[in-house]
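All the exercises in this workshop are built on plain-text protein records. There is nothing in a record beyond a sequence line and a structure line. A learned vocabulary of local backbone shapes supplies the integers on the structure line. The question running through the whole workshop is how a given chain folds. Here is such a record, shown just as it appears in the course material:

***
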Amino acid sequence: MVANHFKKNMQQININNLFRPEILNFSVDTKKLGLVNYVNLDNAATTPPLIAVETAVTNYMTSYGSVHRGAGTKSKISTDDYENSREVIKNFVHARPDDYVIFTGNTTGAMNTLAYFFSFLPGKVAVSAIEHSSSWLPWIKAEGIKMLGSQRTSLEDMDKVNESIQELGGGQVLRYDVSEKFEFNLDRIEQLLKIKSNHVKVLVATASSNVTGYCPDLKAIGKIAHRHGAYFIVDACQFIQHHPLDMQALGIDFLVASGHKFYAPFGGGLLIAPKKFCDKFLPYQIGGGNLPYITEGGEFLRYQNQLAHDPGTPNAVGAVAIAAALKELKVLGMKNVETYETNLTKKAYATLKKNPNVILHVNEKQLNTVIPFSIKGQDATMVAEKLNSDFGIGVRAGSFCVYNVVRKLMHVKNESTIVAAVKNGDTSKVPSIIRASFGLANRPEDVERFIKAITALTK
């Protein structure tokens, strides 16, 4: 029954129609297999462009002109396409009608923007222990700078200032813990927000862990946040390309994501936020383009719309690419995408589970499109390099910017030697595991070669 379902889903999604042959059949020379098609199992890091995206970008460049700055025909066409991209994005995630779509360089840029806005408001920030560094560190920096106040110093004393920013900001950012299986505990979140002295103004949660793929109950978490007067921010970087997403149904106030994660690698990211919130703040970045007028006395007047948050010449190509990718994913149907990718992942997981020399760092309940694992007695970086050089398979080894999780997975009790090594420029002691991540550009034969490669490496 499962095999038949998989075949049916394969017919619904034909990746040969989604990606150029040059991408799917990119050849590499290997030590063990000779010349083979490259297998990309690092989709959680970045994904190849869809044909629809490349076509949209090429067409856009034909009529490309100055966005929001010209009276010519090309400028008008480019501006219309750019602005329409926002509506496509809102429609895909079921954002509220008056939500803004603010384009950023990536998810990190989006989260830094939010951290800047919220640093003006009283209260603390709650971030989970499994969040990517990009969902954690921007808050520490922004809150720390605000806590530092008007203090100025010499260049020679900047090291001390930087330490103060981290210390002060760290006190404003609360990290809510997760279970031993790295799952969210709703009761713990509730208790954290109940404490009046915490005064949590915003709660940040990942929609899907970039290490394990675990997807928490966003709707339940959002209800808890709102019940205690906190805004709810979701990092959908590892979610939006794999699963259906409805901001309104889940109670999400702010959403961030990156185009390169969902087949639009043209340097674009996005932040979806309420208009009534964004209109209260000066833009995170300011200069030309996002101000309608500057008076003789130097007072700058601002827009009460999305343009206020579009400094300089925008990355219109990135915006158009994002919209084209989401249009294509919508045509495919996110449920079909979800089934196709998870079936590939389950097939690989089931075989790895039988291998006594493979340590799996995710259970079947959490299994999504990511398989984090280790091989007994073998260095993670060396395994990743062998998979590439011997078998033409690209995976990633490391801590994936979630050091807290990987430290626990590798049972690191004392990190003093790691800290000393890193300060001396040696990163070899940083705890690492291997991550194989699947996407739309993968085929069943990719799974077969991955399984054979792991079998060979564990003999």
